[in-house]
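Side project, low priority. Logging it here so it doesn't get lost.
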Amino acid sequence: MTEAATNRRHFVLASQSPRRAELLRRIGIVPDEIIGADLEEIPAKGELPPAMARRLALEKLTSIKPRFPDSFVLAADTVVALGRRILGKPDDEAMARRHLALLSGRRHRVITAVACTAPDGRSGLRIATTAVSFKQLQEAEISAYIDSGEWQGKAGSYAIQGAAEMFVRRINGSYSNVVGLPLFETAALLGGLSWPILGR
């Protein structure tokens, strides 16, 4: 097999998120390379949550793709939105506490954009949105969650796959999207670009 033919099945995940790598493994994909893009994940002036997720996913993709022109490269970005307000990754405990207080007793959206390019130059993008409703949080619950450290590096200051799942009253949409990578949309995107999903 030639190097070019081998690279046509070479897969690069443009994200250092262990959650995304684990989710990809659930659909039979073990990335050959896992490389994060060094970008400022802050909204542009007046930017709405879906637009921010789309922009950052594409920026991550275009920053990594030139290094792997003959490979499949996949990037994603997840945004937590309370109305038009974007709750990014917290800088410190105080910000995480504010985020959780805002989410308490309310419904928010988790939006993930997934972008991919194939070795033949084709590309695609999918966006998934999940509505998540939190119960009313007591101050003691917020404090205990802050003490757990799970909030660190998480958009919206929580990880649904951890202890924060006990805060969730209702979820409407993809659970894997809230974790960080919507598997239905990702599999559809990759299948459309001729990557074999689970042997297909």
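Brief comment: The chain has a mean pLDDT of 93.
Revisit when time allows.
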